[in-house]
Structure to design on (168 residues):
């Protein structure tokens, strides 16, 4: 074990590889709410988080499980269309709460073009939230509506999309 007067123990989240503090600092310096996108094997979570010196405040939180509860989604909650609809839901709720802009925080995930993370980003942007983005990173429109999965999912995605944007 390292010792000595000049040795500095890194923060626990840095040692575990869970937080990149340099990236976090650059996001916080923008003074805009962070749009945090996290995925697990089953769900995708989108949160609008505002920095506070006493601790971050979550302004909006949406998980893809809400698609099943509110819109009777019968398909996988970790698919690309589910990610897009989850971003759409989060963006719509944020607009209703008066959030107009933000900056994306994908954490330690690699920025892979066409991934579920960027399907979620596309959903948030489609609601009118102003954020910096690169059009090349988004999945194709066919993937967003689920054309690559099966024919049953396409009309359901468009119906839920119109319900989210148009209100219930």
């Amino acid at each position: 074990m390292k010792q000595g007067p000049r040795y500095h123990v890194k923060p626990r989240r840095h040692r575990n590889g869970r937080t990149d503090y340099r990236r976090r600092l650059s996001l916080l310096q923008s003074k805009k709410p962070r749009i945090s996108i996290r995925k697990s094997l089953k769900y995708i979570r989108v949160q609008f988080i505002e920095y506070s010196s006493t601790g971050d405040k979550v302004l909006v939180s949406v998980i893809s499980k809400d698609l099943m509860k509110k819109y009777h989604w019968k398909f996988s909650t970790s698919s690309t269309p589910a990610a897009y609809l989850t971003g759409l839901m989060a963006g719509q709720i944020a607009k209703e709460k008066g959030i107009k802009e933000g900056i994306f925080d994908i954490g330690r995930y690699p920025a892979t073009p066409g991934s579920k993370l960027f399907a979620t980003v596309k959903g948030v942007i489609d609601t009118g939230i102003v954020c910096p983005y690169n059009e090349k990173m988004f999945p194709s429109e066919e993937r967003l509506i689920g054309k690559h999965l099966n024919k049953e999912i396409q009309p359901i995605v468009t119906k839920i999309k119109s319900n989210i944007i148009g209100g219930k």
Remarks:
- The mean pLDDT is 92.
- The first strand starts at residue 34 and ends at 39.
- Residues 14-166 form a domain with the Nucleotidyltransferase; domain 5 fold (CATH 3.30.420.100).
- The chain has one domain: 14-166.
